[in-house]
Amino acid sequence: MSRATGLLAIVGLLLGLAGLGLALPAREARADVQEAVIQQIAPPPVAPQVAPLVAQPVRPQLPPPVADVLQSGVLVVVSKASQRMHVFKDGSHWGSSPVSTGKRRHSTPAGVFPILQKRVFHRSNIYSNAPMPYMQRLTWRGIAIHAGYVPGYPASHGCIRLPRSFAKALFDLTKPDRTTVVVTNAPLRSEQGAVTLALNSQAPAAMPAAGNGVVMAAATSVQTIQLAAALSPAEAEAHWQGAVAMYPQLASFEKAVVPAVVGQRRYWRLRASAPGAHALCGVLKRSGQDCFNVI
After folding, report:
1. Residue from 86, 122, 157, 159 carrying the catalytic annotation
2. Do 190 and 231 have their domain in common?
3. Which of 48, 107, 153, 211 could be disulfide-bonded to 102 (CB atoms 3.0-4.6 Å)?
4. Start and end of every L,D-TPase catalytic domain (predicted)?
């Protein structure tokens, strides 16, 4: 005889006795016995099966290529050595500002960064809830551009601090999908040098661990521009020297003087090649200089 069958038999006996007035006269007592038997017979509830949570890999976000934002977008170049920031909007110099980058043992990482997140009001979840107004996040590990104390030397825990007015203006200017931030260890002595350094920063580099938001952009293919069609090699060389003096970033380009015959006349075409050359050509044209893209 099973346990459940035995319990049912006992219940029946008890109920029969109750009917004779010999046991359990109270209706409540009979209900208690029935409930106890039901609990013994009923199978225990089965907990629902919940699928274990699987962490999804975080894909690092690539910043727009420097050459692209120089043509249409915002390029931010930060020199840790000079403690200075240069900002370019659509290839034209928009503004410069002193900065304060990471101090010793909290160095600001160098590299090419996207804007991952923007918040007007933000507090650090790492350093004592410190305020970070006009925060523009560069990495998910705590590196950002924001308003803060700028003493003239590296003093932060890795972030790039700006004077409040400049931080607000920059916050209003940038759009995450059209902004690239280049942080370099090298000193910058001019705005033109900042553009050159940013264009050269796109050399291939190993991808970092997923999730830190810091990436180096893929190498940009070499582009060629034409600066002049001279009547002699000497004239082409003189034009090159003048262009380099006015735009020092051209010094890093590969120069070529290509002879050509148009009709009955011979010319020497002055050309220059480098990654991002088309973007620089746009800057030259906006400054009133002759330039056009070749390849």
Report:
1. 159
2. no
3. 107
4. 74-184
62 burial type by CB count under 10 A (0-12 exposed, 13-18 middle, 19+ buried): middle
Number of neighbours of residue 222 by Cβ within 10 angstroms: 13
Q: Which one has a higher pLDDT value, 48 or 163?
A: 163
pLDDT in tens, 234-248: 998 998 998 888 887
Cα–Cα distance for residue pair 82/104, rounded to 1 Å: 16
Catalytic site includes residue 159: yes
194 within some domain: yes
Whether 93 contacts 191, CB under 8 Å: yes
| Residues 228 and 196 placed together within one structural domain of the fold | no
Residues 259-278 have a mean pLDDT of 84
Q: Rounded CA gap, 6 and 265, in Å?
A: 118
pTM of the model: 0.56
| Secondary structure class of 14 (helix, strand, coil) | helix
In terms of domains, do 77 and 195 share one? Answer: yes
Measured distance between the N- and C-terminal CA atoms of the chain, rounded to whole angstroms: 94
288-to-105, 184, 282, 284, 285 alpha-carbon distances in Å: 46, 30, 10, 6, 5
Closest CA to 67 of 105, 102, 116, 112: 112
Cα–Cα distance measured from residue 151 to residue 163, given in angstroms and rounded to the nearest whole number: 10
Structural domain count of the chain: 3
Cα angle: 219, vertex 93, 111; to 5 degrees? 35
Active site residue 122: no
Catalytic residue among 86, 106, 122, 146: 146
Total count of residues recorded for the chain: 295
